[in-house]
Amino acid sequence: MSATDTGGRVSRFGSAVAEGWTRERFGLLCAVALVLIAFGPPFQVYLFTDFLVVALFALGFNLLYGYTGLLSFGHGLFYAGGAYGIAIVLRDLGPVIADVVGAGISPLVTFVVGGVVGLALVVVVALPVGWLSVRLEEIYFALITLAFGMLGYSLIIQDPAGLTNGTDGIIVLLGTVDLGGASVPVGGRRVYYVISAVTVVTATYGVWRVVNSPFGTVCKAIRESPDRAAALGIDVRHHRWMTFILSAMIVGVAGVLRAGLASVASPGLTHWSTSAIAVIATVIGGATYFSGPIVGAFVFLYIRWAISRFPALEAYWELFFGALLIAVVLFFKQGAVGGLHLLRDRLVGDGGAGGSDRGGGGALDADAKPTAPGEAAESGDDNAQTDGGDAS
User: Which residue range(s) make up the domain with 75?
Assistant: First the structure.
């Protein structure tokens, strides 16, 4: 058998794989996996819930970074805002809500009310912070968001208003719901996993709709060339401000889920090192792909869990992640998802089926892929950004 025949068979195999894994089938597979995980071992259910929360955190962060080119190191402020919002409601308004709606369903109602209050708190904070921050560019934007995040960290610890309980944080007890005489703990691992999964899937779909809307298209145009967008009559600062607020809201939802999962809202959520988790997950997965932060969060958490199983290595887990980040930056500049796209393109071949799949046939093409800030302008490729397609 000649090398040409072998290469042709590999190309046809790759084409069949790409054509077979449509978005619908890939989505169905993910849905089945989410259902099956609910019946797994308790710790794995908890770990996957943790992954969902971090994935939403990173996805919200990347809505700002990947689609406007603004790198924030202060998103932990909004992460903590959601967590403290629900924690304060549970602590101060829980008994009142129980008297109004009854003790049987009050924990669930209180959780929903707390989530809404936490989200409202995030919006109130994001409005002025975003308004000031988007007036700066590049490193100055990153520095001012870092400053706002650490300012929030300091205020939470000092607790001048007597709301945050200082360094101890606020204990989050979700309680139990009475369903037909059976007591169901809202914070139980399987129950909370279902709540988190539904919330994260819904929020992810919302982000998907935003980035593929006319608003998202304008944001991508601003990212590629703010001056050109302004020349076309686009209000650059306004769109960046709105994106900042939307990004903060998604991160705030993740913060609400984090408080319930960890059973505490703590000052550490505001620290810059927490904000860095979203940055790391996004870099690992690939900021230029919609699913990049999700894949990066999975890699981040599960590699860390694997390392923790070896006590001799656990103390050096930062070293392993440092090496991983260096490898990604040097050899996989578009992250893990970008590497998968490259592998798929090599299997499919440079022409023929590979070209047809870029219209959105393959499962991996479900990514709405923005290019890195300035990348399209430097390459001169007007098609570098295609919604739902692969420009790698």
Answer: 45-331
